[in-house]
Specification:
CATH topology of chain B: Rossmann fold
Number of strands of chain B: 12
Shape of chain A: globular
Structural class of chain B: alpha/beta
CATH class of one domain in chain A: Mainly Alpha
Number of domains of chain B: 1
Helix content of chain A: over 70%
Oligomer: heterotrimer
CATH architecture of chain B: 3-Layer(aba) Sandwich
Helix content of chain B: 25-40%
Largest sheet of chain B: 8 strands, mixed
Chains: A mainly alpha, B alpha/beta, C alpha/beta
CATH superfamily of one domain in chain A: MetI-like
GO molecular function (chain B): ATP binding; hydrolase activity
Strand order of the largest sheet of chain B: 6-7-8-3-9-10-12-11
Order of helices and strands of chain A: HHHHHHHHHHHH
Order of helices and strands of chain B: EEEHEEHEHHHHHEHEHEEHHEEH
Number of strands of chain A: 0
CATH superfamily of chain B: P-loop containing nucleotide triphosphate hydrolases
Largest sheet of chain A: none
Radius of gyration of chain A: 24 Å
Family (chain B): Belongs to the ABC transporter superfamily.
Structural class of chain A: mainly alpha
Number of helices of chain B: 12
CATH class of chain B: Alpha Beta
Number of helices of chain A: 12
InterPro entries (chain B): AAA+_ATPase, ABC_Ni/Peptide_Import, ABC_transporter-like_ATP-bd, ABC_transporter-like_CS, Oligopep_ABC_C, P-loop_NTPase
Protein name (chain B): ABC transporter ATP-binding protein
Subcellular location (chain B): Cell membrane
Distance between the termini of chain B: 25 Å
Largest interface: B-C, 42 and 42 residues
Strand content of chain A: under 5%
CATH architecture of one domain in chain A: Orthogonal Bundle
């Protein structure tokens, strides 16, 4: 199996190269450059031109690309023009914040999705199923930012239960104090992300259970005299959880995307907010680095799904 | 079979009805049958005849929400119709073993073979884990698996079709049940594998003395393995008797038509016999008179009974409706009229 | 010249493994077979699952890539796609599948299903086309209002007849029928088989009848071949194969067919067990050291069997 994983990782290299080229050219095509925002009536065009020359922005695009890739390979994505700090350093800080948010969101997603999926599948066609399906329908069709804004208005500014911005309170002190403050800051966005993004997992689980209930091997289990409770848990549920496990990698990448909105609206200093800020600020070096990172994470998420699948399903072996 | 053998199952006036658009329709319509120890009873019929429904009724696996079962299925003084689930779970697997048509879909793809066989031992025996493992290996050996320890650790997809069906048989006989229900056990298999599986079933039966209810649409399989035969059409038994009675002296028009439509002819110019019309669906099934009458429209209405019942024409040989007495195939009559020798006469 | 000549047909699938996914071995699905189909005849190709019989059928209609060997149609090479296109081979050769449910598009109406090959190969006005579809439905004994229905509204036998109607829509010369009646009940099977024979007479169609059911093949085919492990083990007329089988595999297949004769069943069973023992114990006599089937050797004008040459000489002397 290790061989296959290694091979898959190696095969990712050309994908990443194509991705990086695409990102680079896309960024080049965006109107303006980092200095556009610096132009004031006091700056002379010649100063700007000099800055451009120094930044290498006048070189042909492929020269710029090669130097960008070369530096990126060493972990150097250059300086953020907006923040005047190394991009790697900024992303490092922000990634930790996003990681906390993602972990809690994943936990909440599954805490809600698994029982909902099981109930909907088990009690297919009853009011329980109908209610869960209705909830799923609503959560899928509601634009997430509307929910975030409403939640901030209600629970943040209105009831004042949760903070409305930041990742940790400045007044927090001590190891546990800081941890508690961090959790306090991510609890509302995580719950909202969890509630809004579990629909696909619920549906997967539900349809898995509904299909598996009709399978012949379930009849075989019953014909052995296995009690119905055990038939459900050992045969139907276990087999339906399989695609859920494999879907895990995709859930992670999905959450990263979903977090972009949540972080921006909650002013939570994670990668998502950084991304939106960098786009607004024409902060190319940050933006391109982030898109590349998201791309690589998506590829890794798919690989993770395949690896999990091969572990849990004996019919699929990668060797 | 010896008729003095112990009675295992006594089915009396069994009706199994399915709900279709808030109406219940009998898929099994007033069936009475008995199964004895050491007997292989074959239920033959085409799809829609109700043969599989009958099997599912015996083992109580119908969804109670859309199925209504009435009548009696007596097993050791116990009526299986309406039996509560907890009690039924002690019967299933322990007293009745079941073999399904497609062994690939009938085995859990994510469970090791050994585990699937051991499962019924968990609920019906007091064996501990070690003893169960030993019993699993013994069962795999008994059904002719070449390397039991290896197979016990394999998953269904790693076995061939024939091997999988052997595993299914091992599951069915794990608790040495007095009754085995085999629902089309060889339909999904190649013909050489089919022969092996049928031989295995017979061997197993001799060893543990079970009564086997063999459900099949294949007349050849019936002729090769069954002791007694019940031919089903539209939820009813139309002919019943020993395998010799039914195959050597078929009486009911349906039995005779089926045998005649088998491709057995030596001349390739001979057309196969086709039964007119189609098998009626559950909802459109005719509920009065002879249900097979529309398929033999040349027979006069007077030849049928108004309420066809089973007639015992000789001990053990039963035929529904009186139309069998005058039944003929249209081409036989033409042949007779043309003065040709009438060689397709039943009963010889 | 035969309608179809199969010459040393090979279809191998690569097995890839290792770090670079290199081809390390092949599955010899079809491993050098030869046979001819004459105009207007039904040629039987018999085998168990995995024998390569369906792969052969698919190769003939062009659904399977041929590794090596030739398929000749009226003497013309139609092994590759361009040649098939040139002579409108795909119009002349059609296929009927076993599973009529999955081979008919569930979202299309019967009219469109049957008209599809007509649209591919002929230009007709809408009314001409509709008349033709109705005519085809009439040939297969289905009411003309079926054109507005969808496949799921029909029974298995009716769907199979629709499959036949589609296959004959372009006046084909050859129909490859892959297990056409295996999924059908006995009485429906009889209908479909009779009907296949009827249109054969009417339109002078040849069939390649692929089946595992020796009873059906015996009824349908005058010449047949038994396929096993990608090769032909025995080829001959119906009489050669059924009355005078030479290869153990053929004998084994024949012995395994359940007979509708309860009185003879003990004897049949004993015979079957004897053949099975011979098959198990003497693999080296019937197969080469790699377990492969020997090349075919002719023993009479019509009858060939895959055996080592010395065995054949012996059989020949017995046959006379």
């Amino acid at each position: 199996m290790w061989k296959t994983i290694l091979r898959r990782v190696i095969l990712m290299i050309p994908q990443i190269i194509i991705l990086s080229l695409f990102i680079f050219l896309l960024a080049k095509m965006m109107p303006g450059d980092p200095f556009t925002g610096l132009i004031t009536p006091n700056t002379s065009p010649s100063q700007i031109a000099k800055l451009r020359q120094e930044a290498g922005l006048n070189n042909p695009w492929y020269v710029q690309y090669v130097s960008w890739v070369g530096r990126a390979f060493h972990g150097d994505f250059g300086m953020s023009y907006a923040m005047q700090r190394p991009v790697t350093e900024i992303i490092g800080e922000r990634a930790v914040n996003t990681l906390y948010l993602a972990i809690l969101s994943v936990i909440i997603t599954y805490v809600i999705a698994i029982p909902f999926g099981v109930w909907a599948g088990r009690y297919e066609g009853t009011w329980i199923d109908t209610s869960i399906q209705f909830y799923n329908f609503i959560s899928m069709s509601t634009p997430s930012f509307v929910v975030y804004l409403l939640a901030i208005a209600a629970f943040g500014f209105g009831l004042k239960w949760f903070p409305t911005s930041g990742s940790v309170s400045v007044s927090a002190s001590g190891f546990f104090g800081i941890i508690a403050s961090r959790i306090y800051h991510i609890i509302l966005p995580s719950i909202l992300i969890g509630i809004l993004t579990n629909a696909s997992t619920v549906q997967y689980l539900r349809s898995g259970i509904v299909d598996n209930k009709l399978e012949d091997y379930v009849k075989t289990a019953r014909s052995k005299g296995v009690p119905e409770r055990v038939v459900f848990n050992r045969h139907i549920l276990r087999n339906s959880l399989l695609p859920i496990a494999a879907f895990f990698g995709n859930v992670i990448t999905g959450l990263l995307g979903g977090a972009i909105f949540a972080e921006t609206i909650f002013s939570y200093p994670g990668m998502g907010k950084l991304f939106i800020d960098s786009v607004n600020g024409r902060d190319y070096s940050v933006m391109t680095a982030l898109v590349l990172l998201y791309g690589i994470l998506t590829l890794l998420g798919n690989l993770l799904s395949d690896i999990i699948m091969s572990i849990v399903d004996p019919r699929i072996r990668i060797d | 079979m010896d008729t003095s053998d112990e009675l295992l199952l006594d089915i009396q006036h069994l009706h199994t009805a399915f709900r279709v658009h808030d109406h219940f329709y009998d898929a099994v319509d007033d069936i009475s049958l008995t199964l004895h120890k050491n007997e292989i009873l074959a239920l033959v019929g085409e799809s829609g005849s109700g043969k599989s429904t009958l099997a599912t009724s015996i083992i109580g696996l119908h969804n109670p929400r859309n199925t209504k079962v009435t009548g009696d299925i007596m097993y050791n003084e116990l009526n299986l119709v309406g039996l509560n689930e907890a009690l039924f779970n002690r019967i299933r697997g322990n007293d009745i073993g079941m073999i399904f048509q497609d062994p690939l879909s009938a085995l859990n793809p994510l469970m090791r073979i050994g585990e699937q066989i051991a499962e019924s031992l968990v609920y019906h025996t007091k064996l501990n884990e070690k003893e169960r493992e030993a019993r699993v290996l013994q069962l795999l050996e008994q059904v002719g698996i070449p390397d039991p320890p290896l197979t016990a650790h394999q998953y269904p997809h790693e076995l061939s079709g024939g091997m999988r069906q052997r595993v299914m048989i091992a599951i069915a006989i794990a608790c040495k049940p007095p009754i085995i229900i085999a629902d089309e056990p060889t339909t999904a298999l190649d013909v050489t594998i089919q022969a092996q599986i049928l031989d295995l079933l017979e061997d197993i039966q001799k060893e543990i003395g079970s009564g086997i209810l063999l459900i099949t649409h294949d007349l050849g399989v019936v002729a090769e393995t069954a002791d007694t035969v019940a031919v089903m059409y539209s939820g009813q038994i139309v002919e019943q008797g020993s395998v010799y009675q039914v195959f050597e002296h078929p009486l009911h028009p349906y039995t005779r038509s089926l045998l005649r439509s088998m491709p057995q002819a030596d001349s390739d110019d001979e057309e196969l016999h086709v039964i007119q019309g189609t098998v009626p669906s559950l909802v459109n099934m005719q509920r009065t008179g002879d249900r097979f009458a529309p398929r033999i429209p040349w027979m006069p209405a007077s030849s049928h009974e108004e309420h066809p019942v089973l007639h015992e024409v000789e001990p053990g040989h039963l035929v529904r409706c009186t139309c069998y007495k005058t039944f003929y195939f249209p081409d036989e009559k033409e042949a007779a009229a043309a003065g040709a020798p009438q060689n397709a006469n039943e009963g010889e | 010249m035969s309608l179809i000549e199969i010459k040393d047909l090979n279809i191998h699938y690569p097995i890839r493994s290792g770090f670079f996914n290199r081809i390390t071995d092949y599955v010899y699905a079809v491993d050098g077979i030869n046979f001819d189909i004459e105009e207007g005849e039904t040629y039987g190709l018999i085998g168990e699952s995995g024998s390569g019989k369906s792969t052969t059928g698919k190769a003939i209609v062009g659904l399977e890539k041929v590794t090596s060997g030739q398929i000749l149609y009226n003497g013309q090479d139609v092994t590759n796609r361009h040649e098939r296109k040139k002579i409108k081979y795909n119009k002349d050769v059609q296929m009927i599948f076993q599973d009529s449910m999955s081979s008919l598009n569930p979202r299309k109406r019967i009219e469109d299903i049957i008209a599809e090959p007509i649209r591919n190969f002929e230009s007709m006005t809408d009314t001409e086309e509709r008349d033709r579809v109705k005519e085809l439905l009439d040939i297969v004994g289905m009411p003309s209002d079926s054109i507005y229905k969808y496949p799921h509204e029909f029974s298995g036998g009716q769907r199979q007849r629709i499959g036949v109607a589609r296959a004959v829509a372009t006046h084909p010369k050859l129909i490859v029928a892959d297990e056409p009646v295996s999924a059908l009940d006995l009485s429906v099977q009889a209908q479909v088989l009779n009907f296949m024979k009827q249109i054969q007479k009417e339109f002078n169609i040849s069939y390649l009848f692929i089946s595992h059911d020796l009873g059906v093949v015996k009824h349908m085919c005058r010449n047949l071949a038994i396929m096993h492990r990608g090769r032909l083990v025995e080829v001959g007329t119906r009489e050669d194969i059924y009355n005078n089988p030479q290869h153990i595999y053929t004998k084994r297949l024949l012995a395994a067919i359940p007979k509708v004769n309860p009185s003879g069943r003990e004897a049949d069973k004993a015979h079957r067990r004897e053949v099975e023992r011979e098959f198990q114990d003497h693999q080296d006599k019937w197969y080469d050291k790699d377990g492969k089937v020997f090349p075919l050797q002719q023993i009479t004008a019509t009858h060939s069997v895959a055996l080592p040459p010395d065995e054949v000489t012996q059989i020949k002397s017995e046959v006379g």
